[in-house]
């Protein structure tokens, strides 16, 4: 095949879409079970993790999804890493709180100092939490940080429960905030994020995104709720804000499907929105 044609095909493939998702690039074949993504603006890198059964390692990706750096968390075990977020100082938080079997009692969030991310190995601070005694164990795959508190969203087909944990090292009893029954089907929340101004929260499902705005305080379901449908179904596990109106999404690789790095515009894709 002529080199010029190959070059043209590469350009076209880098801008292809899946429904209303724009594919930015393919994730490395070494990353088969990407479970979260977080954007570090100062370096223009996306950080990702893999979930249970994989190494206690985090990866920095460029804008096309290529690995530019990996960092081992020496004092952590990847029991079931499920989500990532940054605070305003650039410290990275790894949520080790997946609980598919519902037998986990103590959950852990690892906090990594932003200066340590320059190294190949880091030691993380630990934020441990447990649920109130009257609450059954939950499976969590989504969280974000706001006002120095960590908000967690349970993964459930019917009702999503929201809990709060202080952003402090040590062991804490989580505070139950609210619960909400997202309308429709296939509403397991697999990742979450909140905009820099704290006014827009997003929750990820495999085939759609929930956009939450105009909420009161920490009751994130008290305001306007929009359902933004992707027109594409895959095992999407990671979402983060890139700008106030654009998010980046990752999905797990399943054979020849998935393993991609997507961009989605919140303002241009309002078809199928619900209150």
TrEMBL record:
Pfam families: SdiA-regulated. This is SdiA-regulated domain-containing protein. Belongs to the YjiK family. It is found in: Cell membrane. It comes from Winogradskyella pelagia. Its main location: membrane. Keywords: Cell membrane, Membrane.
């Amino acid at each position: 095949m002529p080199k010029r044609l190959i070059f043209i095909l590469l350009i076209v493939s880098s801008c292809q879409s899946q429904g209303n998702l724009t594919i930015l690039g393919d994730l490395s074949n070494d990353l088969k079970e990407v479970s979260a993504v977080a954007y570090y603006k100062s370096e223009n890198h996306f950080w990702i993790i893999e979930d249970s059964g994989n190494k206690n390692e985090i990866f920095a990706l460029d804008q096309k999804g290529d690995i530019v750096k990996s960092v081992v968390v020496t004092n952590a075990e990847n029991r079931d890493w499920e989500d990532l977020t940054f605070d305003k100082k650039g410290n990275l938080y790894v949520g080790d709180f997946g609980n598919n079997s519902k037998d986990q009692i103590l959950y852990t969030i690892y906090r990594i100092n932003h200066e340590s991310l320059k190294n190949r190995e880091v030691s993380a601070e630990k934020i441990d939490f447990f649920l109130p005694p009257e609450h059954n164990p939950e499976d969590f795959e989504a969280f974000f940080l706001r006002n120095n508190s960590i908000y967690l969203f349970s993964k459930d087909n019917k009702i999503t429960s929201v809990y709060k944990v202080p952003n402090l090292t040590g062991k804490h009893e989580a505070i139950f905030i609210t619960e909400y029954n997202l309308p429709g089907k296939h509403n397991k929340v697999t990742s979450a994020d909140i905009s820099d101004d704290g006014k827009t929260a997003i929750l990820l499902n495999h085939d759609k995104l929930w956009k939450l705005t105009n909420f009161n305080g920490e009751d994130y379901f008290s305001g306007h709720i929009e359902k933004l449908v992707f027109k594409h179904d895959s095992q999407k596990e990671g979402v983060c804000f890139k700008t106030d109106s654009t998010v980046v999404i990752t999905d797990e690789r399943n054979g020849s499907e998935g393993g991609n790095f997507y961009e989605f515009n919140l303002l241009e894709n309002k078809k199928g929105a619900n209150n």
